[in-house]
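Morning!

This is the sequence you dropped in the shared folder:
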Amino acid sequence: MTDRLSPTTLAHAAGRADVSGPAVDPGATTVGVVHLGVGAFHRAHQAVFTEAAAAAAGESHWGIFGVTPRSRRVVDQLEPQGGLYSVLTKGAGSTSLQVIGSMRDVAHLGSRSADVLAAIAAPTTHVVSTTVSEKGYHRAHDGRLDLADDAVAADVATLRSEVGGTTSDDAARTPVGAIARGLLRRAGHGTPITVVCCDNMVDNGHVLRGLVEDLLDAAGATELRTWLDDAVRFPMTMVDRITPATTEAHHAEATALLGLRDEGLVVAEPFRQWVVEDDFAGPRPRWELAGAVLTRDVRPYERAKLRMLNGTHSAVAYLGALRGHRMIDEALGDPEVLGLARRLMDEDVMPTLEAPEGVDLAEYRDSILERFANPATGYTTLQVAGDGSQKLPMRILGTVADRLAAGTVPAAAVRTLAAWIAFVARGRDVEGRELPLDDPLADRLREAASGDDAGLADRMLALRAVFPEQVADDPRFREALRTEVRDLLRTIP
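The structure's back. Tokens below.
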């Protein structure tokens, strides 16, 4: 039986071809970062940047205390391995494995809240970071903290009692609650700290700050709110790396490379990008030495990614699914789908963008198409097609609004929206195979899609949760969408 990866067995992997790391000595590395949401993306992204930065700077105080707010699965994977895990990087024609040694502790929030709060409060901790997915922040429909949520209400009550001087052993129930209670403990010695949100939310740092403030206000933590304004920063970030689900085939491949079994294995594409607003309250890892971009303004990078990468991903997914393609890379091999992707970026999106510093938008376009064509990423068209009512307003309709304002009807963006409408209305591809609708507005979408094809585009445009009035009521856009919807519907039996 193959031995499991651990500090004891790690020496067995030394000198193996295509295996590198750890870049730091796990035994000599101390915690300087607490990370909430220690899933595959964090382990393949921020943890990799942090370890490379620490190694490049010769620093040993940027180890990570990883926290899983929900499932204990990651704890069960990494705890027996002393926090060690590996990243299997798969390009279109290359594979490599990197062992990461910076995860110095890993905990389930519900089981070890006291340790997590103590770590956030420790003066040796300088960064708290998060990747808990948007739903992990417990936001209400208006974007603020959902104070009616039971878990949030429990954190508010606990924080209120702690602000009043009562020590509580109750577990933190939410990531925002853990941050707020940790900050309360930290305010006792006053050492500044930076909270870095790494989730794919527009203005993510501002959003997280607002949620923490909502919780503090609800708990009556006036003095803590004042200290937060003085000593805590919430920079915005933009993150990008595709991390496919780890399969048994990936495990077998990694075991063959490493000579050890790694239950914490994560898989990633070669590309990785991290843009961070340079607004920190105290020390931070020198992430720029690992390739991260530190900037005064993240928004141009965020907008380019949202419209070029995410918008094109949706275009490929919807048209590709309708044309019978199961995988994103397969869809991109279809000349019609590839043509739509190129036209969307070249003709519609790039004219709306200000190129971020150091970024060539044409090169960025080519890198996006290359990444989508990589079969190792393993994305299905249906995966990317999910939650269209939530994604398209951010990914496509901003481009539409800008191009209409400039006097141009964005044909490729309109075609993308028509493909989504046909996807919803038909629910099957050109071969008659089912295309399930996975969307929080599924019932409303199906209701709007029912009825005659002639009025389909207009019924969908009436959905204000998706289409803003200034776009939906533009006669040029409305007529173009009707035409594209009719054209696509004719291709589906």
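Headline: The chain has a mean pLDDT of 96.

More detail when I'm at my desk.
O.
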